[in-house]
Every structure is written in C-alpha cells, then in structure tokens.
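call fold(seq) -> tokens
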Amino acid sequence: MASLPPGIDPSKTPIQPPPPGVIPNLVNPETTAGVSTAVTILFTVLMFLFVLARMYTKLFVSRSQGWDDYVCVLACELTVVQAFYGPTIFFVKLCLFILYYRLFSPSTVMRYLIYFGVAFNFIFYVIYTFFYIFFCPSTSKKAQTCSSDLKLFGLITTAINVVDDFYILLIPLAAISQLQLPSRKKLGLLAIFFTGFL
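ret:
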C-alpha cells in the first residue's frame, strides 16, 4: 500500500471528491452515536428489569422455574457482555422454544415444530458465527475485497431472521387456535402472544 505524502492526515482526507452540491465535513461530522448509545442503555435497563421481574416471580412467587428461565438469564448475560450476535440471538430464541415445549408438548405436531425450530436455529447461527469469524474478519487484508459478499450475506441472513421470527410467533397462535376454550378467552391468549409482533 502506497504511503501518503508527509503532513496528510488520512482521517481528514476524503478518498474521492464529494458528489456535486455536497460539502464534506471531516472535522465535526454529523453523527447519531449519542442517540444510539441512549437507546442501547434504555433497552438494556428495561431488559434487566423484565428479567429480574421474571426470575423473582418464578423463584419466590410461583416457584416454578424451568430451563427457559435459565436460558433467558444466559441470553441476558451474553447481551450485556456484547458476545457474538449469533450465539446471543440463538439463546434468546431457544428460551422461547423451551417455553413453548413446556406449554404445548402434549401436541405431537407442536413438538415437531419446536424440534425443527431449535435444530434450524442452531445450524443457522453456527454457520452465521463461523462466517463472520473465519470467512471475512474485519482485520483481514481482504476485508475490503469481500465487503460485497458481506452485504449479500447480510441481506440473506436478514430475510431468514424475519421468516424465522414469524415462525416462532406463529407456533403458539396455531396451538391456541386448537384449544377448547370460549372465544373470548382464546382471543385474550392470542392478544398476549400477538404482542410479540411489537
């Protein structure tokens, strides 16, 4: 890589001329870092409060804690320490699948849907994590040359995540629709699970 002329600061030197009508500002550019940090802190605090409320209720009120609660705590810890995205999201979704298994395991169809969801997510996030670690790490010399591959991979994984999220949300809706309950109670249960779409 060719060296820059003496006295040139690469952090304040554009690679190419800006588009017509655009005035570059490399000294004090606009940024959303402050807003992003505030939102991250807010939702991290909310996550802690909800997890603490859940564990308090399970340990001291209902005394009915299960594996889904422990996996929920693990996912919370991974989020706080900013571990790899793949394992963190897998444990978040695994918590939901374990909860579904506790609720809907008497149904053979529901059990197979849950087994499939766990297996699919495990395979998907293992591939996702290995791709980002070994295929194109940010410290690699070929990081710039494989940026287009990362963009394509990002689009594919985003599409898979959206479909997967809907799959997870539709499992309880399918189970509740088959319950022998009055319509009002059934709609109430459906409304609770529909909050997941938010």
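The mean pLDDT is 79.
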